[in-house]
Amino acid sequence: MTTIAVTTWSLEQTAPTDLLPAAAPEGDVRIVRSEVPSPEFSRFLYASVGGDIRWTDRLAWSYTRWLEHLQRPGVETWVAYDRGTPAGYVELEAQDDAVVEIVYFGLLPAFRGRRIGGHLLSYGTARAWDLADRWAGLTPTKRVWLHTCSKDGEHAMDNYQRRGFKLFDTKVEEEPEAPAPGPWPGAFPV
């Protein structure tokens, strides 16, 4: 089995004032919270955004596992729409000690390079900071963090840093090399 070295960078913000918002893109781009837990929709977003960058962790999740995850207090999915079409998403998850992780963030391939990502990340990060306002019993957020890796899009790290995230950890691990699964076989043009 062939392996590849994958670098994972962890970044954080420790105050809401760390956020450096991006300008909203031109056109009809809206960001809406997906308030009804929908395993089908969440799996669609996960597979469509991550299919070309080897997101595979959740592909084997059952419907029940998706539903249980989405129904957890403090888990939110915010979806960017370009003229009514899902363009990307950000998933937030409340953790212990008033920490919120941006667990997943990205755009479908057709929507990359159109300035939607910076806007979506800005909006999603702001929602991480005010997450407790929407969930009774959660402590106000004291830290927002995320990780990205060398398999992610070429502009991911730059986008995170431009939004005010600071690097706090770097790890390099060998992983089995696997083809990008795509949302379905043959989804990506050659």
Automatic annotation (TrEMBL):
Residues 29-190 form the N-acetyltransferase domain. Gene3D superfamilies: 3.40.630.30. It comes from the Bacteria. Coiled coil: none annotated. Signal peptide: none annotated. CDD domains: NAT_SF. This is GNAT family N-acetyltransferase.
